[in-house]
């Protein structure tokens, strides 16, 4: 969810009133000494390898057990596990000088009150619990129904408990205080320390770190709560996992859920791929209510570990030359063709190359022979980060393939929107998912004496066997009978494909844009059957594109078009087609046929931001700020990341679309020239929407990227307050214009009035004030006073201070 470097503060905050905090804290305010348990007396012991109940100590309810678990026939782990489910899921283990003890090893509460693990028949001590005060005598031990194993005094005061020294798991009623760390295991059944840690630091920041290897001492963060005053991480008995801040407020680490503690077992675990996940397991088939009798993930941070963007190569969940995919909230590692896992039991180690690399020393006469020995394994929607050594712009996919094939240093290439990114082995931090646009081609050697075409096909210019096929085809086509049959077959296949809506449109050179015919658009939209939106430009219809993206699309039509400006239309589509950013809507293709001008976009399942700002389904405080930051990043790319700056001209909630994970994407950018000329000078045309339009539009002044900054400032206020920029139904006249009211509330120190309907934000007015100040800077009447988008992002993230803004209309 957040990947910003600590201690940079970033609003992950969902603050609530003190009344709500006290009600949430109430379930775990009871003392732990109130727990019922069966005493483990001094002298009691367990033996590893025994197959009856004497090999563990169970809690009174029998739900948890402490004892020995056999691990892959390699030894026994002294552990705590869920004892009433078949999975026997381990939630804690003793990590001493030797992780696994041999059969015959003994754990004992000695006569002097020490809990020790003794190895096999030698009796060598390989682990011992360390009580907080050695001067106080331990009376007994106990396995509690909470899942904690304790050493206690005669007065039931806990001197040591597993809850205060966790391994990789948190259980309900467990608390992590500052300087406490979870350490991920190395693998599914490998309980040695892995590469990922989850720490509540002394400064109150909850941070996840990654290492290159488990033994590496250098760690790099990859997720952080960006808090600086959190005192505890609490997993309460209602199933919520959150940070408690010094002032008594709370910060949700994972979304709250409605899964009952009575019917489900809960656990939170830092898994070996680096994600912290919240799981539940039905206690019975009757309580499952349609859920499987298995551990089900409710939520995770980061939400998709495959999207991990570490600061260094090789720190992702999958190793070198491997790529990560994410499905059902679980990651998995894969090897490209021609590669295999170094260790199939530990896929995080990556993939090894199973062929001899391309030679760089072949004589020039043999160069073609060398390139003929290789082909590309295509990975759609895939990429490896941090591996690019050369970028080639404005080329075709075929050029990208041939260029990489002829370059002995090129191990793979990613082609996206006319750009060819050449990559050198070993490949690092790879992933594949629908949100990654383009295709990655991994170079691999053909099998010796192979006569079969490899996956992805041979590059056309390099396939010398093609000449033979051409000669054969020419001979056959010399027969008029064959020609007629062949023509009929082609027409039949084309007809069937189109009837099945399996459109194969032309791909424009240098871009991943597809050029559709109007008839193809009609098939894609089922004769424009389902309208999903409309505006001054025209209407938007839902469609399905069977080939290529293989997914739903949104087809935008235009009411009025200047037909003779086809050249400008193509130039504008070309500019948009070359944009590539996760916070910009993806343009898939277009239709430019006679009077028909249509645009085909990726389909956004959650619709526009306006539905969640002003409708019944409101987005919470943290997610709103995250969306504001994503919009800012998208605008920064339009203004500074493109070869030619693009001014959006119409930033508003209706033009911010949300995908299935509520990632914000800007739509309708750069399309001002598509409508009638006179509309560009109106207040309601594509150049802007009433309430969001910068003052310079009405003063015949030059239009710059600062008009987008102004619109963003208005939108940012709407996001902060969940109010429309102009509300004719406001109870007071001075509250009708949000920008004016927000500035008045800021000056008069009355921001609580602005946010009084938002309980989440009321307890965090300090940050509200900072965001309002940023918005006021953005809506200054003088464009020169408005900050550029990179500075806006820095102020939101907290890397620079936000100065006191002047009155927006003072200039």
TrEMBL record:
EC class name: transferase
GO terms of molecular function: ATP binding; carbohydrate binding; protein serine/threonine kinase activity
A single GO cellular-component term on record: membrane
Catalytic activity: L-threonyl-[protein] + ATP = O-phospho-L-threonyl-[protein] + ADP + H(+); L-seryl-[protein] + ATP = O-phospho-L-seryl-[protein] + ADP + H(+)
Positions annotated to bind ATP: 556
Pfam families tied to this protein: B_lectin, Pkinase
Keywords tagged on the record: ATP-binding, Disulfide bond, EGF-like domain, Glycoprotein, Kinase, Membrane, Nucleotide-binding, Receptor, Serine/threonine-protein kinase, Signal, Transferase, Transmembrane, Transmembrane helix
Record's signal peptide: 1-34
Domain Protein kinase: 526-800
Membrane topology of the entry: Single-pass membrane protein
EC number: 2.7.11.1
Domain Bulb-type lectin: 37-164
Domain of life: Eukaryota
Database matches in InterPro entries: Bulb-type_lectin_dom (IPR001480), Bulb-type_lectin_dom_sf (IPR036426), G-type_lectin_kinases/EP1-like (IPR051343), Kinase-like_dom_sf (IPR011009), Prot_kinase_dom (IPR000719), Protein_kinase_ATP_BS (IPR017441), Ser/Thr_kinase_AS (IPR008271), SRK-like_kinase (IPR024171)
Membrane-spanning parts: 469-493
Subcellular compartments: Membrane
Family of the protein in this entry: Belongs to the protein kinase superfamily. Ser/Thr protein kinase family.
PANTHER family per the UniProt record, alphabetical: G-TYPE LECTIN S-RECEPTOR-LIKE SERINE/THREONINE-PROTEIN KINASE SD2-5 (PTHR47976), G-TYPE LECTIN S-RECEPTOR-LIKE SERINE_THREONINE-PROTEIN KINASE LECRK1 (PTHR47976:SF108)
The name this protein goes by in its record: Receptor-like serine/threonine-protein kinase
């Amino acid at each position: 969810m957040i990947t910003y470097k600590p201690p940079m503060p970033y609003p992950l905050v969902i603050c609530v009133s003190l009344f709500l905090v006290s009600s949430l804290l109430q379930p775990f305010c009871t003392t732990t000494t109130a727990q019922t348990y069966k005493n483990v007396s001094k002298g009691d012991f367990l033996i590893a390898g025994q197959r009856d109940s004497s090999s563990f100590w169970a809690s009174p309810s029998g739900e948890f057990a402490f004892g020995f678990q056999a691990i892959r026939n390699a030894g026994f782990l002294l552990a705590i596990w869920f004892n009433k489910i078949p999975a026997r899921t381990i939630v804690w283990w003793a990590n001493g000088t030797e992780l696994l003890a041999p059969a015959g090893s003994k754990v004992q509460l000695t006569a002097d009150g020490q809990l020790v693990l003794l190895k096999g028949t030698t009796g060598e001590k390989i682990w011992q619990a360390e009580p907080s005060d050695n001067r106080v005598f331990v009376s007994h031990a106990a396995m509690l129904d909470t899942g904690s194993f304790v050493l206690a005094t005669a007065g039931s005061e806990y001197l040591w408990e597993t809850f205060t020294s966790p391994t990789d798991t948190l259980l309900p009623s467990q608390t992590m205080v500052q300087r406490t760390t979870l350490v991920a295991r190395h693998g599914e059944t490998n309980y040695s320390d892995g590469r990922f840690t989850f720490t509540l630091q002394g400064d109150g920041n909850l941070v996840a770190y990654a290492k290159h290897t488990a033994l590496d001492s250098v760690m790099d963060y990859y997720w952080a709560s960006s808090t600086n005053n959190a005192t505890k991480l609490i997993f309460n008995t209602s199933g919520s996992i959150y940070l408690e801040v010094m002032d008594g407020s709370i910060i949700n680490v994972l979304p709250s859920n409605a899964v009952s503690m009575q019917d489900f077992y809960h656990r939170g675990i830092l898994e070996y791929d680096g994600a912290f996940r919240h799981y539940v397991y039905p206690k019975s088939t009757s309580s499952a209510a349609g859920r499987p009798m298995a551990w089900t993930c409710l939520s995770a941070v980061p939400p998709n570990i495959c999207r991990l963007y570490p600061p260094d190569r090789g720190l992702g969940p999958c190793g070198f030359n491997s790529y990560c995919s994410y499905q059902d909230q679980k990651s998995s590692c894969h090897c490209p063709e021609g590669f295999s896992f170094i260790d199939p039991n530990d896929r995080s180690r990556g993939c090894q190359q199973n062929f001899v690399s391309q030679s760089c020393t072949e004589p020039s006469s043999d160069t073609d022979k060398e390139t003929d020995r290789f082909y590309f394994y295509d990975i759609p929607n895939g990429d490896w980060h941090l591996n690019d050594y050369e970028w080639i712009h404005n080329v075709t996919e075929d050029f990208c393939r041939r260029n990489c094939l002829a370059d002995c240093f090129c191990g793979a290439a990613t082609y996206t929107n006319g750009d060819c990114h050449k990559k050198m082995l070993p490949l690092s931090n790879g992933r594949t998912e629908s949100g990654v646009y383009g295709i990655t081609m991994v170079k691999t050697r053909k099998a010796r004496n192979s006569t079969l075409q490899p996956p992805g096909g041979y590059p056309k210019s390099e396939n010398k066997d093609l000449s033979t096929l051409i000669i054969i085809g020419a001979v056959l086509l010399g027969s008029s009978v064959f020609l007629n049959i062949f023509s009929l077959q082609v027409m039949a296949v084309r007809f069937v494909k189109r009837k099945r809506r399996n459109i194969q449109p032309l791909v424009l050179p240098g871009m991943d844009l597809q050029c559709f015919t109007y008839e193809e658009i009609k098939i894609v939209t089922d004769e424009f059957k389902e309208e999903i939106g409309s505006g001054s430009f025209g209407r938007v219809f839902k469609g399905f594109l069977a080939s290529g993206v293989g997914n739903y699309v949104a087809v935008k039509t235009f009411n009025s078009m200047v037909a003779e400006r086809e050249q400008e239309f193509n130039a504008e589509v070309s500019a948009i087609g070359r944009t590539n950013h996760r916070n910009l809507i993806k343009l898939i293709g277009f239709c430019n046929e006679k009077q028909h001008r249509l645009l085909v976009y990726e389909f956004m399942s959650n619709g526009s931001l306006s539905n969640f700002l002003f409708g019944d389904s409101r987005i919470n405080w943290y997610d709103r700020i995250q969306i504001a930051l994503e919009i800012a990043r998208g605008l920064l790319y339009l203004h500074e990341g493109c070869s030619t700056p693009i001014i959006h001209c119409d930033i508003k909630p209706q033009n911010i679309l949300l995908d299935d994970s509520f990632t914000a994407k800007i739509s309708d950018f750069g399309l001002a020239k598509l409508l009638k000329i006179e509309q560009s000078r109106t207040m309601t045309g594509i150049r802007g929407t009433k309430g969001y339009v910068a003052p310079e539009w009405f003063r015949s002044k030059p239009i710059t990227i600062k008009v987008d900054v102004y619109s963003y400032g208005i939108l940012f206020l709407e996001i902060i307050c969940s109010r429309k920029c102009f509300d004719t139904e406001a109870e007071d006249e001075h509250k009708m214009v949000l920008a004016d009211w927000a500035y008045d509330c800021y000056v008069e120190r009355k921001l609580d009035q602005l946010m009084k309907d938002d309980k989440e934000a009321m307890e965090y007015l300090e940050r509200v004030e900072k965001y309002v100040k940023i918005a006021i800077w953005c809506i200054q009447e003088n464009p020169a006073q408005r900050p550029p988008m990179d500075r806006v992002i820095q102020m939101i993230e907290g890397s620079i201070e936000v100065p006191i803004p002047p009155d927006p209309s003072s200039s």
